[in-house]
Design brief:
Blueprint: H1 3-9, E1 19-24, E2 29-32, E3 37-42, H2 45-48, E4 52-58, E5 61-66, H3 68-78, H4 87-97, H5 102-106, H6 110-113
Parallel strand pairs: 1-3
Antiparallel strand pairs: 2-3, 4-5
């Protein structure tokens, strides 16, 4: 899981995610089920592979969750019509548009996010 789902899981955003979002290397898809919405968004290989964590959810369940750095990066890359050209624009997008917690944002490992 990534995007808003991961950001919510890591308490990076105040809202609860009502759609489980994941990134994939194949075609984007959306599934609506009685349990909820599941979206899969296509991301190119260089962006896809970093920052995936394996989390033990229960003794019999493990899930793959984007790290806070990957969830943030995925959200920036996959948000249509967002072209961040400066640190100030990026901060505004994360703090104002996504309402990310500024203290949580300070905990991100910026070296991991560099190309």
């Amino acid at each position: 899981m990534s995007l808003e789902s991961a950001l919510s899981y890591w308490d990076m955003i105040p809202e609860r995610a009502y759609e489980i979002s994941s990134v994939i290397l194949k075609t984007s898809k959306l599934f609506k089920t009685p349990v909820g919405k599941y979206s899969y968004k296509r991301l190119k290989a260089p962006y896809y592979s970093f920052g995936i964590k394996s989390i033990t959810y229960s003794p019999k369940q493990t899930m793959l969750v984007a790290s806070p750095e990957k969830g943030s990066s995925d959200k920036i890359v996959l948000t249509p019509k967002v072209y961040l050209r400066s640190t100030k624009q990026t901060q505004e997008f994360l703090l104002e548009n996504l309402r990310m917690d500024s203290e949580q944002l300070k905990t991100l490992d910026m070296e991991v996010m560099e190309p």
